[in-house]
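R.M. (postdoc): so does anyone remember the format we settled on? I'll just put the structure tokens first.
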């Protein structure tokens, strides 16, 4: 599956949500709260993250988020194994923008606002300190994350790093934890792809990273950049 242009222009006012949950808003969850009681442990044999680059050319901070009409899975409770992994092929986004951090929702959907039955995709690169990292997510409804070469092409249910379907932390840590423990190197940037799908009601997505040294990061504390391709 080829990587679509991340900087696709959209006409008119973008029908895309730009009001992020911020610390103290009541809808935002800091990593210390979300990961409360979760201690670092290797979930699987630590694996070196792949696809690293020394720098991201022509970059800007954040990840590039595109919003699309429709859902890439049949139901809000589906796991990544039921996703249509060709869903975004050839589709034109309703709108796109740069997210300055990876923490989105919670909000109540409204009729006639394009807030029901939509999907979103974030693309870009992440940079973390040199150590082992586990990744966790909270979602309402469905999400999946790929990091490394699999984020660029050949992503599948089998190489998905972490997925979630209506899960929150720390209660659902076991069901929304990563399949692999990734080893990051200092000053390297790794490709990341995030999928999210909303059916109705409240919606939310937040990404967290837990380092072997005990560091807990929420989306806005994870260093990210995007450009117009993964090349």
């Amino acid at each position: 599956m080829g990587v679509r242009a991340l900087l696709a222009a959209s006409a008119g006012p973008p029908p895309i949500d730009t009001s992020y949950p911020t610390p103290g808003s009541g809808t935002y969850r800091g990593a210390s709260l979300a990961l409360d009681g979760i201690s670092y442990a290797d979930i699987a044999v630590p694996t070196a993250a792949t696809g690293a680059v020394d720098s991201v050319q022509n970059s800007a901070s954040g990840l590039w988020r595109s919003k699309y009409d429709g859902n890439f899975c049949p139901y809000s409770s589906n796991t990544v194994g039921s996703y249509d992994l060709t869903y975004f092929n050839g589709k034109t986004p309703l709108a796109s923008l740069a997210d300055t951090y990876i923490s989105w929702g919670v909000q109540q959907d409204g009729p006639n606002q394009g807030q029901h039955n939509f999907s979103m995709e974030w693309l870009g690169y992440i940079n973390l300190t040199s150590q082992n990292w586990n990744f966790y997510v909270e979602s309402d409804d469905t999400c999946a994350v790929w990091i490394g070469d699999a984020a660029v092409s050949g992503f599948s249910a089998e190489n998905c790093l972490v997925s979630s379907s209506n899960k929150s932390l720390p209660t659902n840590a076991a069901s929304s934890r990563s399949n692999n423990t990734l080893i990051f190197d200092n000053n390297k940037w790794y490709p990341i792809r995030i999928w999210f799908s909303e059916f109705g009601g409240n919606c939310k997505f937040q990404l967290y990273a837990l380092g072997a040294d005990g560091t807990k990061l929420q989306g806005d504390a994870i260093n990210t950049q995007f450009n117009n391709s993964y090349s």
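R.M.: ...and that's the designed sequence above, right after the tokens. Also worth knowing: The chain has two helices and 14 strands. Residues 128 and 145 are 16 Å apart (CA to CA).
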